[in-house]
Amino acid sequence: MKIECNSDYVKLNERTYPCTVSLTMDLVGGKWKAVILYHLKDGPKRYSELRKEMPAVTEMTLSLQLKQLEKDELVSREVYGQKPPIKVIYKLTDFGQSFVPVLDAITAWGNKVVSEKGKFVQGNM
Fold first, then answer.
1. pLDDT for 7 beyond 80
2. Contacts made by residues 13-17, CB under 8 angstroms, sequence distance 24+
3. Is the previous residue joined to 85 through a cis bond, with omega within 30 degrees of 0?
4. Hey, is 31 helix, strand or coil?
5. Paired strand residues for 78
6. In percent, how much of the chain has pLDDT > 70?
């Protein structure tokens, strides 16, 4: 039997899941979480830098996803200064860094799919 199926459920941070795949998808699934992690994998970024690199995401969605990633300890948020404008830096935690090989595999697979079945385009969709 596979390790992810050795018990009826798995638990992390007081949340219970039917399997480790479900746990993983809760942490990094959805339209934007993995994309945010991808943009942070090469180093820390300010919120405004993330917005520029991800123009299709709304400010509210980006903010909510960053909060969730921070809550799940994949991303850390450091605030510099006490008066506006304050500087906020987001970066991957060690736990977030452990997901980088998966991001690299997802990126490679996506590049292969586009090369074989689609095309890379410039500009707006």
1. no
2. 13/72
3. yes
4. coil
5. 89
6. 93
* Distance between CA atoms of residues 117 and 28, nearest Å: 26
Tracing tokens 């689609």 back to the chain, one arrives at 118
Q: Which two tokens stand for residue 104?
A: 């690299």
Q: How far apart are CA 5 and CA 8, in angstroms?
A: 7
What domains, with CATH codes, occur in the chain?
Answer: 1-30 (no CATH), 35-107 (1.10.10.10)
pLDDT of residue 4: 61
Amino acid found at 101: P
| Mean pLDDT of the 28-53 span | 96
User: With contact defined as beta carbons under 8 Å apart, do 32 and 62 qualify?
Assistant: yes
Average pLDDT over all residues of the chain: 92
Predicted local distance difference test score (pLDDT) of residue 47: 94
